[in-house]
Amino acid sequence: MPFAPGQRDLAAILSHVRYEIEQCFIIPQHDTGDHHIRESVFLAILVHARLLLDFFETASRFRDDVLCSDFGFPTTRVPLPTDDRTRLNKDIAHLTYSRLRHTAQTKPWPVDAILGSLRPTVVAFIKHVLDHPPQQVETQELEHWRILYDAFTRPA
Questions:
Q1: FRET pair for 141, CA 20 to 30 Å: which of 16, 18, 116, 151?
Q2: Taking the chain (156 residues) in consecutive chunks of 10 residues, what is each chunk's mean pLDDT?
Q3: Which helix (H) or strand (E) holds 152?
Q4: Is 1 within a domain?
């Protein structure tokens, strides 16, 4: 029988969804002059970005995957440029010959562009969670979501 999350599941997994958003968008302080540290930070961010793309774009569940539609949020194609999407799909967790396509100019990760493409969908999802929280979610968890929403919508 296919997995179908209940209200208790939705309330319990919500902190994990929030964690993925935070890990994707909250960039820790690091030594930007150290190439290895910078690459490690970018890789971590982009792994979370890739996970969020699946969360928002996948319409049918594989086993017990968490989907945005579980929360009543419509499956949404993130407007990510094709080159950036290919980069996330081919260069994050796969060692492929496709990496040979990069030059010194195209090798740096387009972190800002990827996060910029993902951000509007993330903000809409956060607002949706606040407007339509799972029935059994704890008040403290919703407060974390309010703080996150404020951080995303606060004028720069």
A1: 116
A2: 92 98 93 91 95 97 96 97 90 86 87 95 98 96 98 90
A3: helix 139-153
A4: no
